[in-house]
Amino acid sequence: MAKFFKEESRTFNEYLLVPGLSTKKNTPENIDLTTPLVKYSKGKKPSLSLKLPMVSAIMQSVSDNNMAIALAKEGGISFIFGSQAIESQAEMIRKVKRYKAGFVVSDSNIKPDSSLEELLTLIEKTGHSTVAVTDNGLSNGKLKGLITSRDYRINKVDLKDPVSKYMTPINKLICANVKDDLSRCNDIIWDHKLNTLPVIDDKGNLVYMVFRKDYESHKENPNELLDDDKRFIVGAGINTRDYKERVPALIEAGVDVLCIDSSEGFTEYQKDTIAWIKKHYKNMKVGAGNIVDAEGFKYLADCGADFIKIGIGGGSICITRETKGIGRGQATSVIEVAKARDEYYKKTGYYIPICSDGGIVYDHHITLALAMGADFVMLGRYFARFEESPSSLINFNGSYYKEYWGEGSTRARNWQRYDLGGKGGFKFEEGVDSYVPYAGKLKDNVLTTVSKIKSTMANCGANNLKEFRKKARLTVVSATSIVEGGAHDVVVKHNKGAE
Ligand code: IMP
Hints:
Elements: E1 15-17, E2 35-36, E3 40-41, E4 49-50, E5 54-56, H1 65-74, E6 77-80, H2 86-98, E7 103-104, E8 109-110, H3 116-126, E9 131-134, E10 143-147, E11 168-169, E12 176-177, H4 182-191, E13 196-200, E14 206-211, H5 212-219, E15 235-238, H6 243-253, E16 257-260, H7 268-280, E17 285-291, H8 294-303, E18 307-310, H9 320-324, H10 330-348, E19 350-351, E20 354-357, H11 363-372, E21 376-379, H12 381-384, E22 393-396, E23 399-405, E24 433-437, H13 442-459, H14 465-471, E25 474-476, H15 479-485
Parallel strand pairs: 5-6, 5-21, 6-15, 8-9, 12-13, 15-16, 16-17, 17-18, 18-20, 20-21
Antiparallel strand pairs: 1-25, 2-4, 3-19, 7-14, 9-10, 10-11, 13-14, 22-23, 23-24
Helix pairs in contact: 1-2, 2-6, 8-10, 11-13
Bound molecules: inosinic acid.
The site of inosinic acid has 24 residues, from strand 21 and helix 12.
C-alpha cells in the first residue's frame, strides 16, 4: 500500500513566529545575515558564503548578467539561466566577471566628425549626457575627447556642427591608466574636481569610465560579494543533458558555483551529473535539487551535492501540482529537510546548506523559511519585478508591469528542466506566462526586505541565522486568525497591501 504522510502539506502562510525575549543587544545593526552557500565540514568555514540569504531563480525572466551584478552588490547571488545556448550563457558569466565595481564600460560613444544632432539623438537614447568621443565611435576606440551638455548651448549652435568643435579634446582631459585601482581613480576625481574620469590603456584606447556618483554608490555597498580578485561572485544553472559541454564553458568563463536546475531532482540523472563534475573539476561547487523530503535530501547529499534546493510546485508561475499532482507544501518540505540536514551533519560532520526555492509571496515568508531551517531562499517573482530583471517593462492602463514567465511555459520551453530521459523535448506546460507589478530598483526593495527580516529576528532575540533557527518558536495559524492578521474592520484609505 502507498505510504501516507502523517502531517498535512503546509505553506508558509499557515505559520507565525512567536516572539522571544529581545535583549538590548538585538539591534538591527548587530544582526548578521551571513549564511553558508556550500557544504563544509565541522570546524571549517564554507568556501562560499552569502551576506544576504537570497539568491535569484534560474529563469530567463529573472537572472541575467545585470541581475547578477545588482544582487552581488547587495551580498546575494544570481544563478544565470541555463535555458539558452552555452556560449550566450558563458558570455553572461564573462560580463559579470569582467565588471569592475565602479569601472563602467562606456555605453555612450560617438565619433569626432558626427554632428551635434547625432549626439542629441544618442543622449536621448541612453539618457547619459556625458559622451566619450572615440575615433571609431566605439567603447574601446582611441579616445579623442569628452563632450558633456555643458560644452554647447543648443539654441546658440548649428546642430550640423561636428562634435569635435565643442568637445574637450584629449590633450586637455585628465585620464587614468587602466592599471590604476579604484581608490587611485577616486583620488584623481577629487584632486581635479571631476565628475567623469576616462580610463585608457597605454595605446590611448578607452577602457572604462569612472563616475563620481558610482564611486559613492560603491562605498554604499558594504555587503558586496566579491572573489579574491575583487570580481563579483556569480552562479549558473545547468541541466542533466548537456553538462559535459556546458560546464567546461562556464568554468572557462569564470563561474563560481553551479546549480542543477530541475523541477524534480531525486533522480539518477543528478547523481551522474554531480559525479562527472566532481571527477573533472574537483573544486567546483554544485548545488542539486529540487527535492521535498528527507529521502530526497539524503540521496543528493550522498551524491556529493554542495547545497540542496527544496520545492516542487510552490512557485508563483508553477502549475506542476495541477498538471501532474506532484509536490508538497513548501513549509512542510523545509521543516522536514532541515531536520534531515541537521541529522546528516551530526552523523557525518558535513553541513550541507539547504535552499527554500519558490512560493515566497510576502517578505515575512523569507523570515519564516529561515526560521524553519533554510540557509537561504531562491526567489523568482520577487526579483522579476525589478528594473534589473531581463524582461520588458509594460504600461497597462497607466500602471507598470514586468513580464515573468515560468521555465516550463511554452515561452521558455526549458524541457531539460523536466527531463526524464528518453528522447526529451517539450510535451506539456508546467508553468505560465504572466505579469508582475513593477517595483523599481533591486537595492531599495532588498533594503526594505532586510529591515523586515532583521526586525523579526530581533523580536525573537536572535543576532544571526544560526541563533534564529535555535530560538525561533512557530505556531500554525487557524483560517480565522489569518483574517485577524491583516487590517480588518476598518476602511483602509490607501490599500497598498502587504509585501
Ligand atoms: P517564485 O519565487 O514563487 O516565483 O518561484 C520561482 C521558482 O519556481 C523557481 O526558482 C523554480 O524553482 C520554479 N519554476 C520556475 N519556472 C517554473 C515553471 O514553469 N513551472 C514550475 N516551477 C517553475
